[in-house]
């Protein structure tokens, strides 16, 4: 074996340029959002109505994304599909709203700082409880059934029922109505349209979370390991990383995010029920499927699409709103059977 | 006898005894257990045996989890209800409704199956959950057609109603239309049950089991896995729809709560898991046990809750409304510790 010391070999690799068509196919999912928004504008006609609907659609989408992100990553990492994810949404909402109710002085005051403080306290409590619950859930229920999808689905559905029923036992069987903190009530005038203040806040929180999650996944070492684990877990383990630990961490983080989503959704709807998580799970599943199982970006686009479409359709043809999500899912699966941005697995 | 069972007998003496008791009890229910409530329970058992067995075709034999089984059940039930409402009482309405419900269920199953099973079997569980919930919402929202949350009340042929009485007594029981209705339900359930037993023990059923055990290998041997899975889905949906039609004929009422609700879906899951996945007999046993428990154990829970009223948390846990909590716990435990269910356990013991 001779050592080459003359520098780089003579040949120059060139990358074939993508054709315009391929480029379009690659970015098509990202273009769907503006296209949908423009079609919505054309059909709705008036700017303020459209803006109001768009903001509420985006707010809804962001909240769904917060709930869905953990689920899709957990699936990507360990091939675990957690049907009990919805339970964390409900538990988060109940814990958060209980904390808010306890901080009545803060939420009732007309001070933005106190209001935000109360919401923050509620969010932290909810995330702590659901994170801990997620840890227990993984340890007790999910761990014994790795690699067996059928039993995973059955066991996690069982877990969902038990947790939901325990909410009934602890908080009673009735739904709980609530009012938002003083400064988050009412509407804000924004670019010529009246938009609910809380929805703007939800959009901002969702965006910040998405950017933060992307930064963590793209710029940090742990993010690198998670992404690598999604693509080829065995290789990551062979390199000496304890993927199990990473997975448990992701599971806990995903559960905590579901709890956060629950608090946000509860404040959005101003009513919470033990079954809300189960209802949201339907949307979360639609989002995760159309985004491509395991893909965070896909879930983000999917969630915004679902949110926008639902709001537009509810305005244009209220009867159709019930099936709009199923229609969207059908359309996307006909176009890309694996979802919009399927995770490419090295296998 | 074994031929009637398509060569798939109980294969365990204890199991055979239990099944004979169940079979005889159901066959002579109107005479053995007089009273409206007992007859209701017996009819419910017959119908849920078919429903659970049809679900087992999918879960136990093909290894696919579906959450849309109540949707197919509901389609059959609503078919009969709508036909009876619009065509007036009569056997034609029942027939047309049953066939329409059956066709709708099979068509929908085909579409869902083609969409989800083509790519990844795991999509199926999620997509069925989404579609089933959409259908439930539709059924309760489109009140002009489906009667909304209130459901539909309609009339069935007079011969099957409680008002019709024969002037004859058998074993001290006056024969009413209700009893005739029960025997219609019983006979059709029995035929459907034996038909399913035939299907799972046919070469087709063997292929399904091969796919459940190792789909990759089944594909490699040359079976078109997707085609078999979709066929199994359609078959299972069809049987569920027929069970739904029977349910509608028996109840003379159809509503989202009695046909489409997620709770019924859980009941079916539990019946199949407790009885034993992958055996049609298990579905029969599980359905019987579950329906009996539901009809009689809930009263016991009410008593227990009353007795423990002084203890704050315990009485809430034992509240009859928390029935689902205990079902959930039982469900998880049985998936872990009895993956083969009662039938699997008994057969393993007999084989030793």
TrEMBL record, chain A:
> Which processes are annotated in GO (biological process)?
amino acid transport
Q: Which family does it belong to?
A: Belongs to the binding-protein-dependent transport system permease family. LivHM subfamily.
Can you name this protein?
Answer: Amino acid/amide ABC transporter membrane protein 1 (HAAT family)
Q: Which InterPro entries has this protein been placed in?
A: ABC_transp_permease (IPR001851), BCAA_transport_permease (IPR052157)
Regions crossing the membrane: 28-47, 53-75, 87-106, 112-137, 149-171, 198-217, 245-268, 280-306, 313-335
**Keyword Cell membrane found:** yes
Q: Which GO terms describe its molecular function?
A: transmembrane transporter activity
Q: Which UniProt keywords apply?
A: Amino-acid transport, Cell membrane, Membrane, Transmembrane, Transmembrane helix, Transport
Q: Tell me how this protein sits in the membrane.
A: Multi-pass membrane protein
PANTHER family in alphabetical order: ABC TRANSPORTER ATP-BINDING PROTEIN (PTHR11795:SF442), BRANCHED-CHAIN AMINO ACID TRANSPORT SYSTEM PERMEASE PROTEIN LIVH (PTHR11795)
Q: What Pfam families does the annotation carry? A: BPD_transp_2 (PF02653)
Species source reads Limimaricola soesokkakensis
Keyword Cell membrane appears in the UniProt entry: yes
Indicate where this protein resides in the cell.
Cell membrane
User: One GO CC term of this entry?
Assistant: plasma membrane
TrEMBL record, chain B:
Report membrane topology.
Multi-pass membrane protein
Q: Provide the GO MF annotations for this entry.
A: branched-chain amino acid transmembrane transporter activity
Report the locations given in the UniProt record: Cell membrane
**One Pfam short name:** BPD_transp_2
Could you tell me the keywords of this UniProt record? Answer: Cell membrane, Membrane, Transmembrane, Transmembrane helix
Extract the InterPro entries matched here: ABC_transp_permease (IPR001851), LivM-like (IPR043428)
GO CC, one annotated term: plasma membrane
Q: Which residues cross the membrane?
A: 12-33, 45-71, 91-115, 122-142, 180-200, 230-250, 270-293, 300-318, 324-346
Protein name (record): Amino acid/amide ABC transporter membrane protein 2 (HAAT family)
What taxonomic ancestry is recorded?
Bacteria, Pseudomonadati, Pseudomonadota, Alphaproteobacteria, Rhodobacterales
């Amino acid at each position: 074996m001779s050592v080459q010391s003359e520098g780089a070999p003579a040949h120059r690799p060139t990358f074939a340029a993508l054709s315009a068509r391929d480029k379009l196919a690659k970015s098509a999912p990202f273009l769907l959002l503006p296209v949908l928004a423009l079609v919505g504008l054309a059909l709705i006609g008036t700017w303020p109505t459209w803006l109001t609907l768009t903001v509420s659609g985006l707010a809804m989408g962001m909240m769904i994304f917060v709930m869905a992100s953990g689920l899709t990553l957990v699936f990507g990492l360990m091939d675990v599909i957690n049907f009990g994810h919805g339970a964390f949404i409900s538990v988060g909402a109940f814990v958060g709203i209980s904390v808010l109710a306890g901080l009545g002085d803060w939420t009732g005051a007309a001070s933005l700082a106190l209001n935000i403080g109360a919401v923050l306290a509620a969010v932290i409590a909810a995330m702590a409880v659901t994170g801990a619950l997620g840890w227990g859930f993984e340890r007790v229920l999910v761990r014994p059934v790795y690699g067996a999808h059928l039993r995973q689905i059955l066991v996690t559905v069982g877990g969902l029922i038990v947790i939901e029923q325990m909410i009934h036992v602890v908080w009673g069987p009735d739904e709980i109505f609530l009012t938002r903190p003083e400064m988050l009530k009412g509407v804000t005038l924004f670019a010529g349209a009246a938009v609910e203040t809380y929805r703007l806040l939800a959009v901002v929180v969702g965006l910040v979370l998405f950017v933060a999650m992307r930064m963590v996944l793209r710029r940090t070492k742990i993010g690198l390991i998670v992404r690598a684990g999604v693509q080829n877990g065995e290789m990551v383990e062979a390199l000496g990383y304890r993927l199990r630990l990473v997975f448990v961490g992701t599971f806990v983080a995903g559960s905590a995010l579901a709890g956060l989503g629950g608090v946000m959704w509860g404040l959005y709807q101003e009513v919470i029920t033990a079954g809300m998580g189960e209802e949201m799970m339907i949307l979360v599943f639609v989002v995760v499927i159309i985004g491509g199982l395991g893909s965070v970006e896909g879930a983000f686009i999917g969630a915004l699409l679902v949110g926008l479409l639902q709001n537009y359709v509810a305005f244009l043809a209220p009867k159709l709103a019930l099936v709009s999500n199923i229609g969207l899912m059908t359309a996307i699966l006909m176009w890309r059977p694996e979802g919009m941005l399927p995770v490419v697995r090295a296998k | 006898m074994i031929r009637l069972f398509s060569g798939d007998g109980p294969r365990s003496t204890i199991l055979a005894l239990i099944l004979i008791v169940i079979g005889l009890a159901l066959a002579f229910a109107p005479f053995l257990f007089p009273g409206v409530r007992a007859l209701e329970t017996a009819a419910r058992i017959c119908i849920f045996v078919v429903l659970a067995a049809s679900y087992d075709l999918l879960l136990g034999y093909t290894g696919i989890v579906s959450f849309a089984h109540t949707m197919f059940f509901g389609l059959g039930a609503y078919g009969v209800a709508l036909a009876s409402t619009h065509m007036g009482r009569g056997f034609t309405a029942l027939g047309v409704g049953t066939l329409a419900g059956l066709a709708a269920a099979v068509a929908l199953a085909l579409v869902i199956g083609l969409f989800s099973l083509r790519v990844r079997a795991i999509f199926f569980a999620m997509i069925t959950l989404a579609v089933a919930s959409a259908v439930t919402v539709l059924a309760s929202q489109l009140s002009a057609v489906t009667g909304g949350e209130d459901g539909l009340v309609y009339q069935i042929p007079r011969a099957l109603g409680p008002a019709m009485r024969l002037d004859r007594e058998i074993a001290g029981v006056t024969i009413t239309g209700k009893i005739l209705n029960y025997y219609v339900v019983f006979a059709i359930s029995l035929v459907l049950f034996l038909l399913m037993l035939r299907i799972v023990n046919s070469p087709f059923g063997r292929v399904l089991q091969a796919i459940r055990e190792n789909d990759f290998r089944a594909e490699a041997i040359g079976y078109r896995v997707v085609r078999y899975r979709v066929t199994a889905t359609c078959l299972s949906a069809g049987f569920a729809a027929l069970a739904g039609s029977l349910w509608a004929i028996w109840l003379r009422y159809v509503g989202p709560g009695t046909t489409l609700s997620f709770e019924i879906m859980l009941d079916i899951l539990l019946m199949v898991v407790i009885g034993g996945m992958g055996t049609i007999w298990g579905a029969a046993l599980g359905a019987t046990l579950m329906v009996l428990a539901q009809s009689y154990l809930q009263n016991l829970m009410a008593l227990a809750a009353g007795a423990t009223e002084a203890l704050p948390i315990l009485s809430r846990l034992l509240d009859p409304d928390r029935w689902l909590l205990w079902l959930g716990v039982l469900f998880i435990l049985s998936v872990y510790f009895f993956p083969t269910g009662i039938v699997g356990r008994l057969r393993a013991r007999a084989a030793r």
